[in-house]
Design a protein that fits this description.
The chain is built from nine helices and no strands. By secondary structure, it is an all-alpha fold. It holds the Pfam family MotA_ExbB.
């Protein structure tokens, strides 16, 4: 006797679509976990030592500290040091440029989260659609049978129809939780970017010697053979 679940999957396109949704959501969640935790965590520790070096007046060492593979926070701080050293932008324009780069980094961190949001919203609706279509088929079969209605056939059609709603909820609930959690992580990373930006601009405005030393600090291209500060 064939498995009813196998028969349902083979016959109901809604279940197939929900299965594709679940695979897409799983792939997206795994990618974002790598993106937000592994890739960022490897290099996020560059920024705090660099800020400490800037506060001690060791501006060249701070700049060399960031000449390593870096995440968004280190990239933003490195860009701020480079722009400040060039002296091409006054402080208001420097702030605007760093804000623009911070927004681009935040958008990159939030990429692919919309996929999870769409799946979380559509999955229960697709499940409900499958249930409605299954109920229509069940009642059409009951109408066609007339007075010869078999309750077993009707109840079997109804539970199979309701199974699509259960499948939609099983997809939507974990995807919604994952989306909310990852979205919160992105918000925290974005707040860290904003904090780093304000911290650097505060140092730059409060310490004239910082501006002077950055203007004479070597560029990354001229210091790529130097020994980095541990």
């Amino acid at each position: 006797m064939p498995n009813p679940l196998t028969t349902l999957v083979a016959a109901d396109p809604v279940i197939v679509v929900l299965g594709l949704f679940s695979l897409c959501a799983l792939s997206t969640v795994l990618y974002k976990l790598w993106h937000l935790f592994i890739a960022f965590r490897v290099h996020r520790d560059n920024t705090d030592p660099a800020f400490a070096l800037l506060g001690q007046g060791k501006h060249r060492e701070a700049k060399m500290r960031l000449n390593t593979p870096k995440g968004p926070r280190a990239q933003l701080l490195s860009a701020g040091i480079s722009l400040a050293a060039s002296g091409a932008l006054p402080q208001p324009e420097l702030r605007n440029e760093l804000l623009r780069q911070a927004r681009l980094s935040a958008q990159h961190m939030a990429s692919h989260l919309r996929i999870l949001e769409v799946i979380a919203n559509l999955a229960p609706l697709l499940g409900l659609l499958g249930t409605v279509l299954g109920m229509i088929d069940a009642f059409r079969a009951m109408e066609a049978a007339g007075s010869q209605v078999n309750p077993a056939i009707l109840s079997g059609g109804i539970w199979q129809a309701l199974l699509t709603t259960a499948a939609g909820l099983l997809v939507a609930i974990p995807v919604s939780l994952a989306h909310s959690w990852l979205e919160r992580r992105v918000e925290r990373e974005t707040m860290a970017l904003q904090n780093d930006l304000e911290r650097f601009l505060g140092l730059y405005a409060a310490q004239p010697q910082l501006r002077n030393s950055l203007a004479t600090a070597p560029t990354p291209e001229t210091t790529h053979n130097a020994v980095a500060v541990p």
